[in-house]
Amino acid sequence: MSDPILVDHVRLRYFIALAFEAVGMPAADARTVASLMADADLQGSDGHGVIRLVPYLKRIRSGGVNLKPDIRIEKERAAMALVNGDNAMGHLVMKRAAEIAIEKAKTAGVAWVGTRWSNHAGPASLYAKMMLPHDMLGLYFAVGNANHLPPWGGVEMLLSTNPVAAAIPAGEEPPIVLDMATTVAAYGKVKAKASRGEMMPEGWMVDREGKPLLDPKRAAEGFLLPIGGYKGYGLALVVGLLAGTLNGAAMGRDVIDFNADAQTATNTGQAIVAIDPSAFGEVAEFKAAVDKLIRDLRGSERMAGVEHIFMPGEQSQQKAARQKKEGIALAPSLMQTLDRLAEQLDILPLRTN
Amino acid sequence: MSDPILVDHVRLRYFIALAFEAVGMPAADARTVASLMADADLQGSDGHGVIRLVPYLKRIRSGGVNLKPDIRIEKERAAMALVNGDNAMGHLVMKRAAEIAIEKAKTAGVAWVGTRWSNHAGPASLYAKMMLPHDMLGLYFAVGNANHLPPWGGVEMLLSTNPVAAAIPAGEEPPIVLDMATTVAAYGKVKAKASRGEMMPEGWMVDREGKPLLDPKRAAEGFLLPIGGYKGYGLALVVGLLAGTLNGAAMGRDVIDFNADAQTATNTGQAIVAIDPSAFGEVAEFKAAVDKLIRDLRGSERMAGVEHIFMPGEQSQQKAARQKKEGIALAPSLMQTLDRLAEQLDILPLRTN
Q: ipTM of the assembly?
């Protein structure tokens, strides 16, 4: 493998936005989506960043995404809304859903916003984190865009990696940001392994006989394993019911595999929850308690050989800070793809030389 | 091991209520707690049923529980409440919290109720299931009452098994009820193994060197493992922040080990969420979609050797139905304990002969 190429994050954002504009996305929307995709790369969620640009563009050109959507509230009450994404890019739908949740939580204390007719929106943590500048807690649930998980004991892949994210503000400490698939590995990580030509560790996937599957290029022959066995199966199912079925979005057999089908609207469902800690007590006291907890955990006795006890999200935050300064590391093969894309679209290339 | 003794569930409920009344609990409260404890045994949550009676009574006699509590709403908004349990039995606090959540969800669409100064309340599923008769979805999170889980990479047990439960109503099918500790095994299951004289499977616990610990009688020498490794650690932490820290309840180092200390108020925190599907669309359509999903999963192709694909909660529901008819199976050693208890308290014994 050759060395990764470092790219400035602002330049990456600019490049992604130009690419979307070139296929007809309104400039403001292109900037929003590009910014969230570059944020994904910045924090190391490389399965959800610019690597998705080509498939997203393919879907747009195939008519699988609505570039002039009317993203609207279909149902609402004091503490909830159901947002119809009108088949827009998922990033736009979810940003809007998060904004609605924050507004409603300001008065109701807690708000839950579900989406339908949305699309893939990138890493779950991006949306849970939108609550943090408002001193709120965020939770996010989503139905994944391809089924890679059978029910426990089954071999038919009727469930996705349905992720969960949570963002909890701290005081002086960085926030706690959990972002996890309900499978041992997210499918994006399998794709990233394949693109880097690496093998997967045992425990990520099995074949239809239940035997370990290690080559990510053979991923289509097997399926992902849920965390904690039947528990992860239950969690993936419940997340899908909350984010999909409840909203009238696709779940189970109705999920469109967006890798195989670039035309059919995915009717992706997501759910975002905003919780205002000021409704429960003094925000400063809450944040101080989170700080204390973080320090207690981080400063506690470690197992022999362990250098540091990490908080959820700590490594992503460190990576984001480093890549903001030094540039985002992109695989040379990905850079070649983006070079060709720039030529095709006749836009300023990402590569500078 | 000798054969279990079968006990009628109504008789069990009556016995538990008498025991609580004998130590001064008001009759109505005793009936409520007894009913929830017997329900725990009925559904096979035997780590949380009558096996807890003696420790609960010990705590009550030690002054560790308030028998004349003023369970009250401390803070509230349209979609949330913070309930101060006044150190009552957790079952009473959580039943009240669930009722408040249901009432608020009827207008707000979704409601989140947190508790503090609560206590151990038995299996998580009992409270999530309280939404089902109201055609609502229920979620439940709790801080466990003893720390058995270190942060990932650590050896100091600063986290508990912090459980998650979810109940989702179906139409013609039984509801989906998930009830899971964020550890591979709940500590109650370790206790149940110990009381039955059985060994634990590998993967439940490790010792301080990270080596497998199989003897449940040596449980104090090691700690539980989280599901999915660092993911389960993150999940346990987030559940604790939502159910504990947010409510001003104990979390981390502040958690009282209720096995070791029967006097200090535990300040247990829990959170319950009620979601009204009628706010999102037609309830009948939602239930029909849940039915379809259940049938798709259950009827899907199975791995060789697998007899049946289970839904979360299906086995508990079957066990409850069977034990309701045939009686609840109690270990002879537990029955002896309850015989001695009946004598001490001078109440009608559970054993009939």
A: 0.96
